[in-house]
């Protein structure tokens, strides 16, 4: 099946994790040029790079505004050119059950920053770069946000995660309306 992704530059965030790495493999199989993003663990991506020349990697803590900007600036200068498609997949989920009554402000802030604020920063920087892109890149532009049923129905003892995934939906909706 031809989805028109041949040589299209796709950025997958959180590509060192389970869903992200599989997403990278799928886009590569469809002929895309893929940037696989990671934060602290490059190993799974390096293992893939041996097999796929159309794969490059990029490191950034996406909760940092300056790091997100630097990443997009650097990607524009690579042979893959400006990013046309982003898959906003990175995210954290605390393995510990913590009801709201016991949750610290540090946990709340950390999850919202790593999941929701980072998604806003990635979408905003992508859209800013898109303004300067050619019409052919704009024609292919797409944002994919990886949500969760938690964002729709909530999740007991993971209120920080649920609210961050719910908020991502609105970041995506407004991005599409730009
Ligand atoms: N797994 C599930 O059952 C499930 C269900 C519903 C929705 N989801 C959603 O699917 C997505 C992927 O889940 P997953 O299970 O594949 O996750 P995962 O294996 O835990 O991987 C998480 C990824 O996010 C990156 N990351 C974490 N904090 C970051 C930060 N501050 N800046 C940049 N990158 C950061 C990690 O990078 P490093 O490892 O390099 O640090 C890693 O690549 C998430 O958005 C999650 O909410 C997952």
From TrEMBL:
Entry keyword annotation includes Ubl conjugation: no
Membrane spanning stretches: none
Record-linked SUPFAM superfamilies: NAD(P)-binding Rossmann-fold domains (SSF51735)
Pfam families: adh_short
Molecular function per GO: oxidoreductase activity, acting on the CH-OH group of donors, NAD or NADP as acceptor; quinone binding
Keywords from the UniProt entry: Oxidoreductase
CDD domains: SDR_c (cd05233)
Superkingdom as given in the UniProt entry: Eukaryota
Biological process annotations from GO: fatty acid biosynthetic process
Family classification: Belongs to the short-chain dehydrogenases/reductases (SDR) family.
Name recorded for this polypeptide: NAD(P)-binding protein
The species this protein was found in: Suillus fuscotomentosus
């Amino acid at each position: 099946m031809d989805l028109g992704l041949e040589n299209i530059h796709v950025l997958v965030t959180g590509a060192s994790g389970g869903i992200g790495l599989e997403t990278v493999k799928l886009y590569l199989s469809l002929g895309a040029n893929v940037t696989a993003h990671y934060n602290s663990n490059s190993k799974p991506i390096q293992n893939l790079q041996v097999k796929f020349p159309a794969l490059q990697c990029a490191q950034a803590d996406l909760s940092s505004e300056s790091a997100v900007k630097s990443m997009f600036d650097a990607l524009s200068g690579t042979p893959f050119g400006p990013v046309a498609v982003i898959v906003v997949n990175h995210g954290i989920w605390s393995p510990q059950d913590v009801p709201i009554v016991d949750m610290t402000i540090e946990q709340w802030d950390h999850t919202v920053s790593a999941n929701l604020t980072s998604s806003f920063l990635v979408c905003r920087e992508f859209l800013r770069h898109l303004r300067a892109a050619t019409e052919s890149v704009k024609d292919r532009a797409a944002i994919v946000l990886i949500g969760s049923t938690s964002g729709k129905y909530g999740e007991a003892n993971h209120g920080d995660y649920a609210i961050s995934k719910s908020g991502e939906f609105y970041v995506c909706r407004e991005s599409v309306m730009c």
